[in-house]
Specification:
The protein has 144 residues and is mainly alpha-helical. 56% of the residues lie in helices and 4% in strands. The longest helix is centred in the first third of the chain and has 27 residues.
């Protein structure tokens, strides 16, 4: 229900600032739910011992959910991400590949590489908001 509400919130006709605040609250709530699930998994010694004894070769995971890489680190296994990009622009940072927002559209912007001035402004706003949302979502995982 939480994720469905987050997805449906995209189509609501509300003022922009109100949608931003409501999306922030939903993301914070949803990330707390995922953090709780990850904590319970990692602190379940019996389950973690069973996973360690199973002899897995790698952990296949979604890069947008940080629990997979954390479990892989705990089990000393390599991680295989099954998406083409990492959250928060980490793929661009890791490869040192330039990604100027004036030319390269953000994934969720639906822009092409031929953007108008307003599309470039929108692209820049998405880039700035990604950093803020990434901090909200991923910083609570640091203690794990």
């Amino acid at each position: 229900a939480s994720f469905t509400g987050l997805g449906l919130g995209v189509f609501e006709k509300k003022p922009f600032l109100q949608r931003v605040v409501e999306t922030y609250k939903r993301v914070k709530k949803d990330s707390a739910l995922l953090l709780s699930a990850c904590s319970h998994l990692l602190y379940n010694e019996e389950l973690m011992a069973s996973l360690a004894e199973s002899g897995f070769d790698a952990v296949l995971t979604d890069p947008f959910l940080p629990c997979g890489p954390i479990v892989a680190l705990r089990l000393a296994l390599p991680v295989v991400f099954f998406l083409h990009s990492l959250p928060c622009g980490l793929d661009f940072q890791g490869t040192r590949c330039p990604s100027p927002p004036s030319y390269v559209p953000r994934v969720l912007s639906l822009n092409s590489d031929h953007m108008t001035f307003l599309q470039r402004v929108k692209n820049m706003l998405i880039l700035v908001s990604e950093g803020f949302l990434c901090n909200v979502v991923y910083s609570p995982y640091e203690p794990l």
